[in-house]
């Protein structure tokens, strides 16, 4: 195996650092945003703003019309969670985030993360405000009663001093760091990767 | 001489770490046999013992646990159940979770709305539920843990890229 020249090493390291910066910067920008809490439609909380038991419903960013049951909840922070369960069991959760406190730069970060800018929420039955909206899917049964959570639930994240959204959430079990970590795949990948690196270093040292 | 020693050290470490990774993978393939349990109808407190999801081939023992220092204990032998989350037969949201290994909740991701979920208790009773919701949520989404006015089981495991999300199944009691 030929030795690498200094120029080649510098080139590889530069490429690696540049790629890392490109990949990490959106994550860092996203991590610095303080996201409000949107309860899952699997166990929604908050005050019911409106229930539409039937009829046709639209979803922001989606040109399809859906029939089914649609419930909008007002969250404790004034944002909205919309839970649509269509007649064929497809659920769409739309999180509506009022843009009042969001900067333009943050709006662009959110857009890159799949959020949609809605200039006038009144067209969607909400207050005449601008919103960021994001959809996620779930499976449901259309004959489930609305709600499930108590409006007294609190799920507050505390930010650490560097502004990233890390920290604990308050649940009825006390403070937790999130849901349980029930996967060990990162650890397995870590072991094998580190082991491979160690073997490569060992081979280099014997040359 | 030192170079040879270092090379040997890295070699041994590399073999050891790779072996660790494969051992971890191997133990997920082992068969879990629910312990023989002898239910007793006379027991004062009814506790969940076994969980069945026949459509996806899950049959596992349930181990009661509690959150300590903000952390969730896990087991490699079955499903964990947060004792404080609720009791069988009464309103409330019982929270259970387990590893996404092939021999534990790996096939949970194949669950569908309408599938049944059964909990067998220490009092020799069977509690039947039907799955009402299935979703993939963020690992920080603790809203699914909230208590409910219905009799509910919330069961979840890891999913997504590098297990960064949680696959959640919510089942509600079948009223006789």
Key phrases:
heterodimer, A: 207 residues, alpha+beta, 7-stranded antiparallel sheet, two-stranded antiparallel sheet, elongated, B: 176 residues, Sortase, Chain: A, 2 domains, 8-stranded mixed beta barrel, 1 helix
Give a written overview of the molecule.
The complex is a heterodimer of chains A (207) and B (176). Chain A has 207 residues and is α+β, with helices and mostly antiparallel strands. Chain A has three helices and nine strands. In chain A, the strands form two sheets. In chain A, strands 1, 2, 3, 4, 5, 6 and 7 form a seven-stranded antiparallel sheet that branches. Chain A is elongated, with a radius of gyration of 23 Å. Mean pLDDT of chain A is 78; it is low at 145-166. In chain A, β8 (169-171) and β9 (174-176) form a beta hairpin. Chain B is of the alpha+beta class and 176 residues long. Chain B is built from one helix and eight strands; from the N terminus they run αββββββββ. Chain B has two domains: 1-30; 48-173, Sortase (Sortase, Chain: A, Beta Barrel). The radius of gyration of chain B is 20 Å and the shape is elongated. The longest helix of chain B has 26 residues, at 2-27. The chains are: A alpha+beta (207), B alpha+beta (176). At the A-B interface, β7, β9 and α3 of A face α1, β6, β7 and β8 of B.
Describe the secondary-structure layout:
The complex is a heterodimer of chains A (207) and B (176).
Chain A lengths: L5 H27 L14 E6 L3 E4 L2 E13 L5 E7 L3 E9 L5 H9 L3 E3 L12 E9 L29 E3 L2 E3 L8 H22 L1
Antiparallel strand pairs in A: 1-3, 2-3, 3-4, 4-5, 5-7, 6-7, 8-9
Chain B lengths: L1 H26 L20 E6 L4 E8 L13 E4 L9 E6 L18 E6 L4 E13 L12 E9 L5 E9 L3
Parallel strand pairs in B: 2-3, 4-7
Antiparallel strand pairs in B: 1-2, 1-5, 3-4, 5-6, 6-8, 7-8
What's the gist of this structure?
The complex is a heterodimer of chains A (207) and B (176). Chain A is α+β, with helices and mostly antiparallel strands and 207 residues long. Chain A is built from 3 helices and 9 strands; from the N terminus they run αβββββαββββα.
């Amino acid at each position: 195996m030929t030795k690498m020249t200094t120029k080649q090493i510098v080139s590889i390291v530069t490429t690696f650092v540049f790629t890392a910066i490109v990949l990490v910067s959106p994550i860092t920008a996203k991590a610095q945003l303080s996201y409000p809490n949107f309860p899952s439609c699997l166990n929604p909380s908050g005050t019911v703003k409106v229930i539409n038991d039937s009829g046709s419903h639209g979803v922001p960013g989606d040109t399809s019309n859906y029939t089914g049951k649609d419930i909008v909840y007002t969250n404790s922070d004034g944002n909205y969670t919309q839970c649509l369960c269509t007649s064929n069991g497809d659920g769409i959760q739309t999180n509506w985030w009022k843009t009042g406190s969001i900067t333009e730069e943050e709006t662009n970060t959110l857009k890159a993360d799949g959020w949609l800018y809605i200039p006038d929420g009144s067209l969607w039955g909400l207050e005449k405000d601008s919103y960021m909206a994001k959809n996620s899917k779930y499976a449901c049964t259309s004959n489930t009663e609305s709600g499930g959570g108590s409006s007294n639930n609190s799920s507050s994240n505390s930010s650490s001093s560097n502004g990233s959204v890390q920290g604990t959430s308050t649940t009825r079990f006390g403070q937790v760091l999130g849901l349980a970590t029930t996967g060990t795949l990162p650890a397995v990948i870590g072991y094998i990767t580190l082991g491979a690196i160690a073997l490569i270093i060992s081979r280099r040292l014997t040359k | 001489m030192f170079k040879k020693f270092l090379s040997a050290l890295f070699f041994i470490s590399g073999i050891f770490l790779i072996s660790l990774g494969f051992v971890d993978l191997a133990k997920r393939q082992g068969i879990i046999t629910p312990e023989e349990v002898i239910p007793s109808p006379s027991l004062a407190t009814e506790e969940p013992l076994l969980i069945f999801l026949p459509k996806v081939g899950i049959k596992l023992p349930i181990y009661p646990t509690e959150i300590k220092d903000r952390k969730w204990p896990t087991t490699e032998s079955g499903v964990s159940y947060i004792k404080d989350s609720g009791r069988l037969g009464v309103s409330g949201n019982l929270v259970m979770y387990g590893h996404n290994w092939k021999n534990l909740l790996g096939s949970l991701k194949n669950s569908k709305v309408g599938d049944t979920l059964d909990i067998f208790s220490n009092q020799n009773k069977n509690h039947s539920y039907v799955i009402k919701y299935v979703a993939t949520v963020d690992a920080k989404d603790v809203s699914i843990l909230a208590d409910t006015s219905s009799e509910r089981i919330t069961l979840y495991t890891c999913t997504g890229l590098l297990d960064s999300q949680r696959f959640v199944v919510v089942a509600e009691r079948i009223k006789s």
